[in-house]
């Protein structure tokens, strides 16, 4: 009976973990398929998908080991759980470090960590992100939304706009460009093509494939969106880590009790007892 109860505990815990792996996998797939600027943040969606797949695999191993009473599968399950706890701990600490405030970026950048700025603003890193922004049609959706277009044209402080929309789909307010409808903006009369106040003014282009995708403000917008997503992921991972630690601890206790009861059962059937039990 005790052996059966220990196995039932392991089965129940792994059934819950298996169910929880489904929304984790769904969240990773959703992040990968998002049709806005953050659809480019594959280094957030990929770990999420990997985490969901790992949880599902570990849970299935635990279920199979408990149902079939395969000791080697239970050992494999416990080792995998410990590795998962270590990986979650490292990822959560890294995510909090990435979302912490850094020394601040110059120009149009925000107060982001050095790692995040380096992995977004580098020429090799920014090229695929810029291409993704253009393909995703972030600014085309903004042009179709009349309310948002009016806010952008009025040079508002970003109310109603995402960081990516605010930084990539309109010239900086300091440029004093005039909204001409659609995605068109006109430069102020009597001023050169490169106003000294903000270099992004010279980078703006009315071409739908260019817009402000090369602006520092656009990079800052992507960094802001990524930091928001990473911060959410860090909080979720912290909660999930606590749950996994509890599951791992309970599974270890159940496995220890199962081995002890199994040893006592076979010892009693063999007609002998351990020394000191008499």
Question: What can you see in these coordinates?
Answer:
With about 280 residues, the protein is mainly alpha-helical. It folds into 2 domains: about 1-100, no CATH class; about 135-275, no CATH class. About 70% of the residues lie in helices and about 5% in strands. The chain has helices at about 1-35, 40-70, 70-100, 115-120, 125-135, 140-145, 145-155, 165-170, 200-205, 215-270, and strands at about 180, 185. It has a two-stranded antiparallel ribbon.
Overall pLDDT level: 74
Structural class: mainly alpha
Shape: elongated
Low-confidence stretches: 35-39, 103-109, 147-158, 271-278
User: What is the tally of helical segments?
Assistant: 10
Number of strands: 2
Q: Within the largest sheet, what's the order of strands?
A: 1-2
> How many structurally independent domains?
2
Span between N and C termini?
Answer: 23 Å
Rg, alpha carbons:
27 Å
- SSE run: HHHHHHHHEEHH
Share of helix among residues? 55-70%
Strand content: under 5%
**Main sheet: strands, sense, barrel:** 2 strands, antiparallel
Subcellular location: Membrane
Keywords: Membrane, Signal, Transmembrane, Transmembrane helix
GO cellular component, one term: membrane
Membrane topology: Multi-pass membrane protein
Quick structural gist:
The chain is mainly alpha-helical and 278 residues long. 68% of the residues lie in helices and 3% in strands.
Could you list some keywords that capture this structure?
membrane; mainly alpha; transmembrane helix; two-stranded antiparallel ribbon; 2 domains; 2 strands; single chain; Tetraspanin/Peripherin; Tetraspanin; 278 residues
């Amino acid at each position: 009976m005790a052996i059966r109860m220990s196995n039932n505990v392991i089965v129940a815990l792994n059934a819950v973990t298996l169910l929880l792996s489904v929304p984790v996998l769904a969240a990773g797939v959703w992040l990968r398929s998002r049709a806005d600027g953050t659809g480019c943040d594959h280094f957030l969606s990929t770990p999420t998908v990997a985490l969901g797949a790992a949880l599902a695999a570990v849970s299935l191993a635990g279920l199979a080991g408990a149902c079939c009473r395969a000791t080697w599968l239970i050992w494999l399950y416990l080792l995998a759980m410990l590795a998962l706890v270590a990986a979650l701990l490292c990822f959560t600490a890294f995510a909090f470090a990435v979302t912490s405030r850094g020394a601040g970026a110059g120009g149009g950048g925000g107060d982001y960590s050095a790692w995040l700025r380096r992995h977004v603003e580098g020429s090799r890193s920014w090229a695929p992100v810029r291409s993704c922004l253009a393909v995703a049609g972030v600014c085309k959706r903004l042009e179709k939304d009349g309310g948002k277009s009016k806010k952008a044209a009025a040079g508002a402080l970003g109310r109603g706009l995402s960081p990516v929309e605010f930084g990539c789909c309109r010239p900086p307010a300091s440029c004093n460009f005039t909204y001409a409808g659609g995605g068109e903006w006109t430069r102020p009369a009597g001023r050169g093509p490169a106003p000294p106040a903000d270099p992004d003014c010279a980078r703006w282009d009315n071409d739908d494939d260019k817009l402000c995708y090369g602006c520092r403000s656009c990079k800052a917008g992507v960094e802001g969106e990524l930091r928001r997503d990473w911060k959410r992921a860090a909080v979720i991972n912290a909660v999930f880590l606590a749950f996994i630690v509890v599951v791992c601890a309970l599974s270890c206790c159940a496995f220890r009790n199962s081995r002890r009861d199994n040893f006592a059962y076979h010892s009693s059937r063999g007609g002998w007892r351990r020394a000191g039990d008499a």
